[in-house]
Amino acid sequence: MKVFISGSKSMNKAGKDWSLPESVRAKLDTIMSEEDEVLIGDCWGADARVQEYLNVAKYKKVTVYSSGSHPKIRSNVGQWEEKHFSPNGRTPYVYRIEKDFHMAEDCDYGVAIWDGNSKGTFINMLCLCALKKSCKLYLIHEDRWLSVDSIEDLRGLAGLEGSITDNDIREVLTMCDFSDEMIEYLVSEGAVSPYQLVDIISRAPITLDEKRCLFGRLGKKRNLKFEEFASVEENINRGKDFKKIKHDIREIADLRGERTIWTEFYNRSRALSEAKDFLVGDLDHNLPLFLFSEWYDIDELQLKSSNVGMFVKTGAVEKYIENEEADNDTGEGYYRMEAWDDCDVDWEKPRYDYYFNGGKLCWFEKLRPKKQEHGNTYYMSENREFAAGSLDLDFRTPYKPGDIVLIDCRPFGPPFHAMILEARDQFDCCFPNIVFRYPGTNEWSLTPLKHRWLYKDIGWHTYEPMLSPLYRLRKVNDDEMTEEDAKLLELSSIISGSEEKACKVWENWHSPAGDDILSWEQVLEVFALVTSL
How far apart are CA 227 and CA 298, in angstroms? Predict the structure, then answer.
């Protein structure tokens, strides 16, 4: 008889006595006395502990299965026969799972030493059930044995489906610099879905390391055991063969196939890691890093860029920015860093632009070379998930017509105050809309808040900041009002929370030039039309 022995890696954690429990040692003694052949993996934890016990007993009938080619085996303390299998996947689970499939198929029965959490050991038991092979399960924390003879025996051990809670959402919004008002509203109203968290984290004014940490923490809310149990159970009930069952186990563990929130978290985290890894470059050469200081010039009404110079280490860039920004307490202006692969002389590989806020790396954009019809090659944006594309964040806000709010898109533009006009139908990206004076001008505009047409640009009509105003959006306190806000307060008193008046203002907001930019006198004329409503 051949026995597949598997167990949890947690038996390797430092600071704990992970000698095999007496009942497990007794089970191994029985296996050896019956001269069953042991099939075991090469991992640390339970694999290593069982190997050590068998080696001390000088037991010879052992085969060690490993994912990866020889001599990359991690543990074979008894120098037993080895079998190697080529891994094919992008996650650690799938990397290890191939050898486990083979052990499940090659064995006659299984023994599992489980901490109640290990995904790999649980999947091994699912495979044995799918192959109609029995398994003796030792629950470490309960010090007892169970017989697993069918998948029904594992139902109570699969746990509940993973989910993102309101507390998780609150934590993300807090870390991503949302105002307290927006956090309370979005959480209490259930106005943010887990899928929206993906873009919220990606575009937030926090460091790339903080974003990776958030994606990792949310990803841990997934219960892979529940998903794999549901998949295997369904396939068994449908009479599918083990080939199909293995395929679906791989797809789920590898976060492929059907789109789920866990897939989204993983894909964004992976894209982030690739961008960070690109900066490391090859060991034999450094990437040239070209740094630019950029800011929205409120006097010239355009985005300005100044070439700082070339660096070869990100740390040197961060030190330079730290020295330059020591006296900058406005939070305005940022640094953009172009990273090029100087070995890619034919422009065939992608490159990245990175953005620094407060001296820390916070955003990036992936660009890929694309040859044009006339023969020249240009780098075109391929991935702006960690920047801001043409589509902005889109969720509801708690504000009503006439509210004076803070618009703060720093470091991509100066903060200013605006008045909420229409606040209805906020499932539409065109609402709420705001009335405001373009910073640095005497011109007034009416625009959807989420479209980010917030700054005047002499060449492109408007300049759209990379950061959404939704992050720091909040009502302006009375003690924050200045003389500049007197006009907004005048308009607010006319609107008085009325959606009907707000809609009428929208309908009548037209400039003679057709660009919807009005003078203050023209704004008053438009608002005068609604005073009688």
Answer: 53
**Angle between the 499-508 and 520-528 helix axes, to the nearest 10 degrees?**
130
Q: Comparing C-alpha atoms, which of 465, 296, 462 is closest to residue 393? A: 465
Confidence (pLDDT) at 149: 97
Chain-centroid distance, C-alpha 530? 46
**Cβ count within 10 A of residue 246:** 19
Quote the distance between the C-alpha of residue 381 and its chain's center.
20
Give, in order, the Cα–Cα distances in Å from 420 to each of 234, 249, 438, 449: 51, 50, 15, 9
- pTM (2 d.p.): 0.90
pLDDT reading at 57 higher than 90: yes
Domain 2-157 in CATH 3.40.50.450 = yes
Q: Distance between CA atoms of 238 and 248, rounded to whole angstroms? A: 13
Spans of all domains in the chain: 2-157, 158-268, 289-383, 403-529
Q: Is 472 helix (H, G, I), strand (E, B) or coil?
A: coil
Dist CA 329 CA 273 (whole Å): 31
**Sheet harboring 416-420: ordered strands across?**
474-475, 404-407, 416-420, 433-437, 444-448, 517-518
Phi/psi-derived region of residue 360, left when phi > 0, alpha when psi is between -120 and 50, beta in every other case: beta
Across the strands, what pairs with 307? Answer: 292
Backbone angles phi, psi at 321, to 5 degrees: -65, -40
Give the residue among 289, 271, 292, 290 at the shortest CA–CA distance from 280. Answer: 289
- Encode pLDDT of 248-271 as tens digits: 999 999 988 788 999 999 999 999
Rounded Cα distance between 136 and 129, Å, is 12
Q: Which of 407, 419, 398 is nearest to 492 (CA)?
A: 419
User: Mean pLDDT, the chain, as a whole number?
Assistant: 92
- The identity of residue 192, as a single letter, is V
The rounded distance, in Å, linking the Cα atoms of 197 and 219 is: 12
User: Each residue of 409-420: pLDDT tens digit?
Assistant: 999 999 999 999
Residue type, 48: A
